[in-house]
Amino acid sequence: MTNQPQPMDADWLVVHPNPKVPDFVLPAGSVDAHCHVFGPSAQFPYAPERKYTPGDQGKDKLFALRDHLGFARNVIVQATCHGKDNRAVMDACRTAGDLARGIASVGADITRAELAEMHEAGIRGVRFNFVKRLVDATPPEVFLGIADKIQEFGWSTVVYFEAADLERLVPFLNTLPGIIVVDHMGRPDVRKGVDHPDFQRFIDLMANNARIWSKVTCPERLTVAGPPYDDVIPFAQAIVEAFPDRVLWGTDWPHPNLKSHMPDDGALVDFIPKIARTPEQQRKLLVDNPMRLYWAQ
Ligand code: 0GY
If you take atom 4 of ligand 1, which residue's CA is the nearest one? Predict the structure, then answer.
């Protein structure tokens, strides 16, 4: 296999065929708290409204990667290519049992019975996406209505936006009930540096609202320099050091919609000790925090 786009569909890169065994030995019970499943499309078709088409990467491959890298558990996040049809994530969660939890995407019309069925399958949160290249816009009121509905299940929200949108979104984020997990540190522009007002706005947001958590994920998306992603280290390190009890980490496998290069997932694991430098920070990031957030209900 190569990392080249496939001739039948130039929209996606092939996942790394043989990721290294990480040099960093993950703490026992570590959680890959941001990963996805794609299809397989014959069983779980991609959404007609999707903005990209991935190659199939189903639950069996995800669980094999989990074991290969040394993780114990997964939090499987609904990818936008599956729209609001959460069957692939629910199926993967049911297969994994206690070893996986899921994050769904739902619409304003979601019913209590549907949420209860999702909870039974292992869903523990919903994702609100503001990234324009991935989804059509949803009014914040719709997300607030959904956030209210999930409270009785003890779920949290995952919010995905880009740094340029944060200023506009601060009032919305502060209105959301429950715990709010921001994907990929709010996608800072790493060329601007940690002291830039854009990144400091994100740090202030977390400092001022103790319900806001961050995934310190996706150096491969945020980097300008490329592997080994040294330009992303100061951003993730700053968040881990300031908010060690409110950070999560994940591989983002199978790396949806990544256009530049496919990372080696083992090398991504080796990035962890660069951003969480003490065993205590590593245990919180990889075990204590995700278990408290997703396995307590
Ligand atoms: C990510 C990042 C992206 C895509 C998705 O659900 C998705 O399609 O999440 C992206 O394109 O930035 O979090 O995996």
Answer: 256
Please give the distance, rounded to the nearest whole angstrom, from the Cα atom of residue 123 to the centre of ligand 1: 18
- CATH number for the domain harbouring residue 78: 3.20.20.140
Residues enclosing ligand 1, CB less than 6 A? 79-81, 134, 183, 221, 252, 256-257
How many structural domains is the chain composed of?
Answer: 1
- 251 CA from centroid of ligand 1 (Å): 12
Nearest residue by C-alpha to atom 11 in ligand 1: 257
Distance CA 230, CA 280 (A): 22
**Domain assignment present for 3:** no
Dist. CA 79 → ligand 1 center (Å): 6
- Condensed to tens digits (0 to 9), the pLDDT of residues 268-281 reads 999 999 999 999 99
The candidate with the shortest Cα–Cα distance to 77, out of 158, 173, 180, 163, is 158
7 in a domain, yes or no?
no
Which residue in the list 252, 264, 265, 270 is annotated as catalytic?
252
pTM above 0.90, yes or no: yes
CB 122 within 8 A of CB 102: yes
Is 288 considered catalytic here?
Answer: no
Cα–Cα dist 100/188, whole Å: 29
pLDDT, tens digit (0-9, with 9 covering 90-100), for 111-167:
999 999 999 999 999 999 999 999 999 999 999 999 999 999 999 999 999 999 999
CB 103 within 8 A of CB 76: yes
Cα–Cα–Cα angle for 101, 228, 61, rounded to 5 degrees: 35
